[in-house]
# Entry
Amino acid sequence: MKIAMIGTGYVGLVSGVCFSDFGHDVICVDKDPAKIEMLERGDVPIYEPGLDALMHKNVEAGRLSFTLDLAKAIEGAEAVFIAVGTPTRRGDGHADLTYVMAAAEEIAQLAKEYVVIVTKSTVPVGTNRQVKQTVRKANPKLEFDVASNPEFLREGAAIEDFMKPDRVVVGVQTDRAAQVMQDIYRPLYLRDFPILSTDLESAEMIKYAANAFLATKITFINEIAALCERTGANVKQVSHGMGLDGRIGNKFLHAGPGYGGSCFPKDTKALARIGQDVGLPMQITETVINVNEGIKRRMIDKLLDLSDGSFNGKIITVLGVTFKPNTDDMRDAPALTIIPALVGGGAKVRIVDPQGRHEGEALLPGVQWAEDAYKAANNADLLVILTEWNEFRALDLKRVARKMATPRMADLRNIYSSKDAKRAGFEAYESVGRAPFWRKADDAEG
# Structure
């Protein structure tokens, strides 16, 4: 089957590469000449483990190609996927559908025969019906169907998620469109992965509801973490005890500096706006958004306490700035709130991140970038762990402490413990949701 994929961002590129690995003939199209040139050279514009090898494999097999020519991509395609950006619109929280509708109109003008137009981008409820109206208006004679096929890819594990999904959600209106979508996902269907067929609106809502729920779990455990700090409880033990309940589960119950990334911030805001538009405020979701911002600010207070009330003149080493490990994505990362506060307070900030520098240099002015955590810790007054990259999980803490001017650590991902910090010679250690350790204070287990 021939598939056209409009958009070579995170969702479009991963989906296009994986569809080609299913055996389909996939052409990925983008308006950015630099991006297409990069892809044709064999370079991947995003960091996603395993994506480069899978892309090269399918390009060499002749199943995957890239182009600026949308007409060429659409010609003979049985399905055209729209995987363009839907950023939060400034001022009102709506998802910006400008690129989606522009793509739909172009498809209508260029398509010559029956095609299923599939929205892969995350879009508000009702968008696919708008796509249908846009296409019909642009080309009344075109025979087509629309489908909603939201993505559920975790950055850093996207290949695994696509090839072994918890479920595939497909919203359709006709049996013909349903058959095309079943043919596309046939390799997963044959291996008994759940393929859920719904109406258009339900497919659109599933994506928003799922992300809002996961954002709520993260925010809930972060609020519990704050309560643990006030009461002497240990959030790691609390979350473990909660997660053993099969009705709750242990995923997304890890306390930290708040959620970020390309999905949760954008999708919670969009869901809240949908509720406002129909006169049914999403009170839980709105609260989650506000609390998450407060959590980031609370982290700044922790760092301020560890800096004796002032960042001015302090050397602060930050390990990790991407919103999670195994990605180069900086969108809405807690680092974008926390690090500017350090710099603005007069600190000299050194950053180490395996993949964050590419985006981070433009987003985080006034900092120094380093490749080695130990060198970055030299004469530092505070070490901050913001992203739990594997290479930060097994640091020689004694070596780090010896290099620092004042060995203090803010472990905002709870990688280590008070015992680890004490043994290594740290004079102070703060985490999230566990008792802090100060050399002058009574011993406390982390």
Summary: The first helix runs from residue 10 to 21.
